Every structure is written in structure tokens, then in C-alpha cells.
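Form P-L/3: holo structure prediction, ligand zinc ion.
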Amino acid sequence: MAGYNQVLVLDLIRRNPGLSRSDLVQRTGLTMQTMSNICHRLLDAELIREAGRRQSGRGAPRIVYEVEPAGRYAVGVHIDPARLTLAVLDLAGVLRAECTMEIPNPPEPETILAAIDDGVSMLLSEHGLSIDRVVGIGVASPGPIDGAHGSVVGPPLLPGWDLVPLREALESRWGTPILVDKDNTAAAVGETWSAPRCEENFAFLYLGSGVAAGIVRNGEVIRGGGANIGNIAHLSADPDGPRCSCGGRGCVDVSAAPAVIVSSGIAAGALDPVDVTDAHRVEAALRDLARMADSDPQSSAAQVLDHAAAGYARVAVQLANLLDLEAIVLGGPQWPALEPTMLRVLPALLNEAYIGRAIHGIEVRGTAVGGPVAAIGAAALVMGETVFDAQSQLYLR
Ligand SMILES: [Zn+2]
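OUTPUT (holo model):
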């Protein structure tokens, strides 16, 4: 039980900096002697530190605690077919370092693994963070993924990734725990970890080279039977849209995915032809389209983006109806390009069509965390699992 109680106390201190031993005794029901032992061990392990004294009642002022931010770090890696984002969180959950780099082209597994190695080493050394204090590396990846084995299994936008044992490959390189999760789920975790809104029900609409939804129920990110919850590729974005290979019509995959938006921009004459199977070119073209729409709201570029945003509004309505949501949060690598149009178009369409509109509205907002939200989520996941997950009763070095 010692491990379990230590994790419990550490997590309490992280969430409520400034608790004294007697506060902790009150909250946990442990004895003062046990609590003193636990606090000593956490201090010795440099997981918490004293944060001054607080006068309460008549006795002597009591020592209060907070986590030692530099006690441990977690690294988050977000693989998008167009770019790699890295983030380092400290024990207090503060972002200590981040960087973004282009995904090598072609995006072969070995090249990307090497880029991750170089990127993580560089980031840690640039910021003077010791690898000895890194508890693990979390990876947010396009899916489908095999969560149990930490493998990526044939994501449509990463050609050649038929079966990539990401966890195994990184574990053997780094000798530290590796956790692999879906990009949309990691993004939802990043959003709740850094800006917790208790009890909120929302979908995180993740807009990267691919799109998917992270689902948050009562403030908790929920998962499915595997690790692939939130696939929206075959929800309808446009009932008059083209036929999809699934048999449906106007699915996100054929009507509103980033590559499709760019194709529409080309067809409308707003963009010069580009190879829409190249994630880098799609990302750049989407930025061009957004710039044109911004400077001329009557342009064909603006119409193409409006149509896509209306498609995402339809998708958001389906999610809101199914899950009884209170908010739609949007983010991911393509979010900056889509943000102005989406924030203009989505709220009205969504709230007109939402089945429960007479009871409550649905807030539409952009990520509070920003660009590295999925990388931060991946780091938070591995930090949670290795340091703060009381159930796993993890070792404290
Ligand atoms: Zn479909």
C-alpha cells in the first residue's frame, strides 16, 4: 500500500499546492505518522518541496508543500504526416520546452524515428534538462493504432506504415517507458490537463492532416475498446456530396478532409494544382487558401472554406446529439488556417440544428493550449501513467 498512498499524496499536492501535513491527513484519512513518512520519502525523491509556512489556528505555523517542478519531466511527441511537434512537461504540468519540425519526406518509419531521436535529444540539451529525470515519452500518432502493443497500423496518410511497432522501437532506443496513443485523444488530454474544466462534456475536433474527435465526458477523456475512439471520417459532412467508398455520401473523408478542401480550392481556380497526397503541400495550400479568404470574403477561396466549415458544423451536430455535448473545442495543426472561418460559421449552424437547443446551447471555441496541444497531451499521458496513476502503484525512484 505504500506505493499507492505515495502516489495519492503526490497527486493531491500537485492539484492543490500549499497543503500541509495535517491538510493531507484530513483529506486522505491516513495517520500523521504515515503522512510524515510519505512526505519525507517524496522530499528525498525530489518529487515535492517545501513551499513556506502557513499560520492556521493558534499553533506553530505549518510547513506546506508543492510538487518539485524540476523533479521529473515527461516528453511528448506528436506525429502528424506534415510535421513533428515535441513538448516537455515538468512535474507541475508546466510546458518547459517545445519545438516543431517538418516531417522528413518521404515519411518513412525509420526516418521519422531518427527525427524523433534527434529532436528529443536536442530539445533536452538545449534547455538543460537531464534525461535521467525523464519518466517516459508519450507519442500521439495518426491511427489506426494497436493500443495494446503501441503499434501504428496503416494510417492512410502515412504510406509505408503498414505495421510500425512504435513503442518497441522507441523503448529500445531510449530505455524509458513509451506510451502510444491516438492524436485526437492526446489532444483532448492536452486540453483537459492544462485547462481543466470540471464536469464539462465536449468533443475536441482535431484538425491535422487527418481529422478525428477526442471525446471528453464529465471532464474525463474517454477511450474505446481499442485506442481508436472518435473516428469521424465517415460521418456526413455534406448530404449532397460525392459518394464515399463506405457506401455513404458526402462523408468527411470525401467532403471536408484537408486534402479535399485543397482539391476543391484547385477545382475552383483559387489554388494552383498541387499533389494532394503530399501532406506538406496540403498544409501550405490550406494556409494560402486561408490568406485569400481573409483578404476577400467574396472570393472562391472563402467559399471553399465556408463549405468545409459548414461540413464540420454538420459533424459537430451529430457528435453533440449523440453525446449530449456542451462544447466543441477545435485545434490541431490545421486549426490556425481554418480558425477564422470555423469560428464564424460553426456556432450558428450548430446551435440551429442541435436537437437540445431549447435546453442548452453549445459553445464553440478554439484550443486554450494552442499548437502543441497533442504533444502536451502525450507528455501528460505518460506523466500520469508513470508518476500519478495510483492504480498502477508505480515505483518512485
Ligand atoms: Zn464514407
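COMMENT: The pocket of zinc ion is lined by residues 234, 244, 246, 248, 251, 253 (CB under 6 Å).
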